[in-house]
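Forum > Structural Biology > Help requests

Title: Can anyone predict the 3D structure of Arrestin domain-containing protein 3?

Hi all, first post here. I have the sequence for Arrestin domain-containing protein 3 but no way to get a structure on my laptop. I'd be grateful if someone could post the structure tokens.
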Amino acid sequence: MTIKTFAIEYDALNDRNTFSNGNTLTGRVIVEITKETKIKDVTVKAKGKADVSFTVSQGQQSVTYWDNEKYFSQTQSVLPQDKAPGSVSLVAGRHVLPFAFQLPYQGLPSSFKGAYGKIDYRLSANLSRSLRAASKAEVKFTFVSQADYDQPTLMAPQHGSKDKNVVFFASGNISMDIFLPKSGYQQGEGLVVNGEIVNSSTRKIVPKEKLSKLLPVPLGITPTIQNCRILKVEYGLKIILDVSFTKNPVIKLPLIILPIDGL
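Reply #1:
Sure, ran it for you. Structure tokens for Arrestin domain-containing protein 3 below:
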């Protein structure tokens, strides 16, 4: 086998190994050959796209819905500048061919993978030779879209309320109010939940009056995605008051999850 190794790798920008809007992604294609070989070209492509697919049962039939959205695609030759594509001879040994791409500044949603869809970004390398099958290599990279901290909704406080009349084995009314100081939270940030329970019924409930809870936003979750046409990633806080012998009051409040600063 003439081509012993054909691989592509990139350089991390941070300890989370993520990239964001406008970042320069650098790396290299590694070619190791056992003897002098003529090649036509070595190219690298950087691209990003979203795909969704899901199946819905309709009676005795199933219908599959799918769609995709392409964000960008950039291709460059990584041959040395003094070697024009066409027919280039590489001597036996290990060759390192560097490349660099600047990622677009706008319009890119964060990487995501779910049960019915995904948004992924990848680098693919291609080595072409006359009368031979092309050698290919590929690697994915994680993109995290920069947060728009100018959104007025991020700092807007939230309030939800729910009333419930108790009729089985008791009487009266139970009301619940939940307060959040804001709507936007970074990964890893503490989410402060304050609430007030007013029990005007004859049924005992816990908590009896006020509640306060600090909930950490997980570090590993995908930030909110609102800039993709075919899929969205949304979050919310759901509070349930457990009341015996009746349907539990539920309050739902939307949340916006933001990436950690410093990406």
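The chain has two domains: 3-143, 152-258. The mean pLDDT is 89.
Shout if anything looks off.
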